[in-house]
Amino acid sequence: MSKHEEYEKKAEELITPVLAKYQYEFVDVEFVKEAGSWHLRIYIDKEGGITIDDLTVVNHEFSDLMDEHDFIAESYILEISSPGLLRPFKKPRDYKRNLGNDVEVKLFAPVTWEERGKKYTDKEFVGILKEYKEDPEGIVLDFEDRTMEIPVKDIALIRKSIDF
Question: In this structure, are residues 140 and 148 in contact, taking their beta carbons and an 8 Å threshold?
Fold first, then answer.
């Protein structure tokens, strides 16, 4: 495990009790360098969506914890954020939460299928997420005229599909 992965793991451990106190959901953590500065980003959510007031409360409490534990050697910017509508699915709960919703899926490699005597090849799909399977990990996408099973290991990106 790299030093930065250890930072992420420790940050998740520290923030978990704070989030439990307010019944918020931990979504993700990342420690990344952007434009020459390190950023520790914690993404949180709750039923009905997270508010600015929620983010402020968590930011104050977590910032105090980070000062107390002081385990990150680099100087960094702490960000507590909503994951946003178009966040990629990373954990099983992301897939389960979106069952029945339209999702956008991009695969690492194209797949070929036959439909009405014609062959098609593509690696980007929008369909309804019908099922999430844990063993082996995969999904079932539903289209108007067919379904497709896709192993999670073949998915480069999956997120909710939003029409604007």
Answer: yes
Inter-residue contact 59 to 70 (CB < 8 Å): no
Is the backbone of residue 120 left (phi > 0), alpha (psi -120 to 50) or beta?
A: beta
Whole-model pTM: value is 0.72
Q: Which residue's structure tokens are 């980070």?
A: 66
Q: How far is CA 137 from CA 3, 77, 133, 140, 151, in A?
A: 29, 35, 5, 11, 6
Q: Are 124 and 106 in contact (CB under 8 A)?
A: yes
Distance CA 162, CA 164 (A): 6
Q: What is the pLDDT of residues 50-99, one digit of tens each?
A: 999 999 999 999 999 999 999 999 999 999 999 888 889 988 988 998 99
